[in-house]
Amino acid sequence: MTILGLPIQVLFGQLTIGLINGSFYALLSLGLAIIFGLLNVINFAHGAFFMLGALAAWLALTVGGVNYWWALVLAPLVTGLFGIVVERLLLRRLQGLDHLYSLLFTFGLALAIEGTVRDIYGTSGLAYPVPAALRGPVDLGFMRLPAYRIWVVVVALVVCFGTWALIEKTRIGSYLRAGTENARLVQALGINVPLLVTLTYGFGVALAGLAGVLAAPIYQVQPQMGSSMLIIIFAVVVIGGLGSTMGTILTGLALGVIEGLAKVFYPQASSTVVFMIMVIVLLLRPAGLFGKEA
Fold first, then answer.
1. Is the Cβ–Cβ distance between 246 and 284 less than 8 Å?
2. Is residue 202 exposed (0-12), middle (13-18) or buried (19+ Cβ within 10 Å)?
């Protein structure tokens, strides 16, 4: 059976692979969108935090003997705590200044983190094994897909939509949104706004660390693994709408699928299709597909 002249196995296979890539895009972009939307910080170090999450999982396994399931919990926590330290000791000093200062700071921080990891572990990739429970393929009818990749999609979707519900449907989320609009008023009501800001930044960084742990068995752990995805992640956030959590999630998933289809119908454009979409969206709707006009 064929669709648009292509075997159905090939078409659905690329759609599935695109959904896997889209899951990483959505999870990484969500952390970036939270940090910008709630804190107004353009976090260029997000790719480095993604790499640190993968590296923390690898170190936990090779040095401490910690298995994947524990690393899935501990590595994001360690990465998030590192983000909290960065926000409290360094990034907070730039609060109230032009966005350019935080952008330059996080860009320099990313270079420092990647350079340190490169000096210690080199540029060759560090292999992280797939957990035994998720090895082997799963027969989907039209293709046999590794079980671990299905696991990545499920975890990414649960975490993304759970985070959206936390921000949009809970009291804590309402405090966060109100704190970004009028911090003085919210603090006058007894809410510790600086603590909320710190925890929000740490949570966004922890999401990047979680994505790194999920990526470790698929991509080899190496210093540039985050920076190579960062430009696509920024494009996802811009297309979805700066500050829109649901827009970021849906855009990340959709762009992963579109990228997968482009590899089938027009492979030459597969590496640029995301940026072509970004240009079109910015021309027609500068605030993004789900963003609000100023």
1. no
2. buried
What are the structural domains, with CATH classification, of the chain? 21-284 (1.10.3470)
Q: Which of 50, 12, 19 is nearest to 253 (CA)?
A: 19
Nearest residue to 149 (alpha-carbon basis) of 125, 131, 127, 124: 131
* pLDDT tens per residue, range 4-44: 555 666 677 777 788 888 999 999 998 888 888 777 788 89
The alpha carbon of residue 222 and the mean position of all alpha carbons in its chain are separated, in whole angstroms, by 17
Reported as type and span, the H/E element at residue 103 is helix 99-121
SS3 annotation, 202-249 = HHHHHHHHHHHHHHCCCCCECCCCCHHHHHHHHHHHHHHCCCCHHHHH
Strands (E), the chain: 2-3, 6-7, 137-139, 144-146
Give residue 59's identity as a one-letter amino acid code. L
Q: Structure pTM?
A: 0.90
67: phi then psi, degrees, rounded to nearest 5 = -75, 175
DSSP class of residue 267 equals: G
